[in-house]
Amino acid sequence: MPSIARPLRSVLYIPGSKPRALDKARGLPADAIIFDLEDAVIPEEKVAARATLAEALATGGYGNRMKIIRINGLDTEWGADDAKAAAKMGADAILLPKVDNPADLDALATFTGNIPLWAMMESPLGMLNAAAIAAHPKLQGMVMGTNDLAKELQTRPRADRLPMMTGLGLCVLAGKAYGIALIDGVYNAFKDDEGHRVECDQGRDMGFDGKTVIHPAQLDVANEAFSPSEAEVELARRQIAAFEECEATGQGVAVVDGKIVENLHVATARETLAKLDAINALSSE
Q: Which domain holds residue 184?
């Protein structure tokens, strides 16, 4: 399946109930924003948060950042009304928490129509059903809910996230099979840049498109980790040049740094340069 063209390196959670936070987000270097009506909003403010968020989105000013609204679960007293309200706010997608199977997305679509859907993947059942969920015709992205998943798995914290690898891996396989966006879970210690960088690099190496962040201080690390490095860009350009030269002359096999360059390497190289172009276009706005 084709890779995701739109940069989604950093996906920032913003409480839908906080006007100051909603305003500040307009100037932050996040590729996408999750406007949260769920965990970031206390029960007493959930109803009012809908109007606060609707006003902020109507005012605009978020540029080309992807705008995603996370509603409360449809099994809560707020979920259905959240979905109805979110469907009128002009967001790019609506994110449903704790998706266990495709039927959960079907239920949401009865309120949201043709608006693209995203799914929080944060339960063992959801991970086991990742392929069926990813195949849903309205689904365009998956977000890993690693805190909830760790709780459900009854794991102990580990820097390598080994207890979660099976579930995360199933989601990566499903997302790649169906060509949807894949966003890694949050790193809770928002003042620990080095630990965050290690986890971002792990997520990037696994195949995630970006990482959810809970604090603006985490944006730069995520953006850097999920951007092509200078070395990757330089290698991509050399691979493409060597391959095209061999094609033009009809002689030999393309070799760069002692390694054969085949069609698949050139395809990856071109994806790398396309991603860089998309990032530069987003940053210039």
A: 10-225
